[in-house]
């Protein structure tokens, strides 16, 4: 698979993740960047995402949701990166079976802020199973949470 | 603390969890039961909660959100159960600092169904830190996910 | 594969796990039972396994070791159970690639006791990846630890 | 507490971890360095620590054991670093209750090598509960495993 086909696959996937997943729209999760290194997503703080009304803190479920998506699509980017023998249709078929096996979230500090950004890195790349580590930061760079996810990528 | 005060505390907390947490309202998460044994919550499937549009499956972030809430308030119920020396104001002050330290979700099968119910059990009870195991089932009794959460309860 | 071939495979595997893994011998971990439902292992308390000298408590690494082995071979038993098309040589070849992807241990109470028994159950069975939950109890039935492990089974 | 008392406490603790914990001696786990930033431990490969006899690979239980110890004492170093109001006796009393609440190990690649080194970093520091991330590398710098542990530090 040529590099430009890989990039085109990522571009199309980014559009799906950004616009066509109903739950992402409900939370207004947005794709900031998606390349062969992984997916970067943001979510803006707003009243509907608050979990602790006394302190105006992001609900832990939002953190888990963002990091799960970042981890899964970062794992998939790594799969795209590693394979040169698939065409865009095979990749599209494969992404349908992308799923989370297990997910761990470590909450480091209260989710205060206005824009939260999730990033990820593959720590174990496989043809079937990949493992990612993810991080969530606010707009001031405060580190809100770590994540670790194991994903079925094929 | 008398048993009836404990029950009144739980009743008031259940109302908060059911109606006053913005993110719970966004997902339409509802308290089914809250007693000294723990919290039981439900969420109805609807389009906005879908993560996989090809298969109409609940987003993994919804699963994580429900199980995190179930775990935290189940841990808090256990704390209420164990202490006889607190009044309702002390408990209300204490619940404000209830927070998740870490959370693990094991996704067992795709989240297909119409009503999802989360339940939990305390496996390690402490005055500061408690650990819960949680489960999510659909209305047919299919086991969708397991959770394990470590919570700061005071 | 006939049921008796499955049982013979398990019997041979049990002998390997019980006697031929150097680290199992170092800890004196013993197979109590191995059938299609899973592996049950025991370890006897002795001075060399102590982690906390003030309180004579089992080292947390022993707990993790026992539960990891129980989880992996319980996952493998489930694979044997599910497949009727493999012969004993294929299974032996497959067990060589059995490996842990990730492992979570929840320590519930101090590891006091004389005989510790680890048991496990498959919670997600797959042809490639399986997930197990494990438990460690002492001889009085005190629940010492929970485990959750994700294993590559082929 | 003066800086030199902190260092003296760490020096005494390092001696205990290195020489007086029976299970550490059984595995021949050695303290490489212990300062306010954390604990660094090594274990040499030898036949008794092998888990996979076909491939001469370190048993996953050894990995879990080393990373658990590294995480716990790294968390404790952070506690020592943060408090100036304790004397050496208070610290010694406090270390007796140091315990692991939960531990996650992510196995990245087979444990091949001759010397394995575990290092750790505190990601959430608390007066009661701390969370660490740990890593295991072999002598060639290959990254064998990640760990995440939640510890009761007081």
From TrEMBL, chains A, B, C, D:
Domain of life: Bacteria
Gene3D superfamilies from the UniProt entry: Hotdog Thioesterase (3.10.129.10)
Mitochondrion among keywords: no
Keyword terms, alphabetized: Hydrolase
EC number: 3.1.2.20
Pfam families per UniProt: 4HBT
Database matches in PANTHER family: 1,4-DIHYDROXY-2-NAPHTHOYL-COA THIOESTERASE 1 (PTHR43240), MEDIUM_LONG-CHAIN ACYL-COA THIOESTERASE YIGI (PTHR43240:SF20)
Record family assignment: Belongs to the YigI thioesterase family.
Protein name: Medium/long-chain acyl-CoA thioesterase YigI
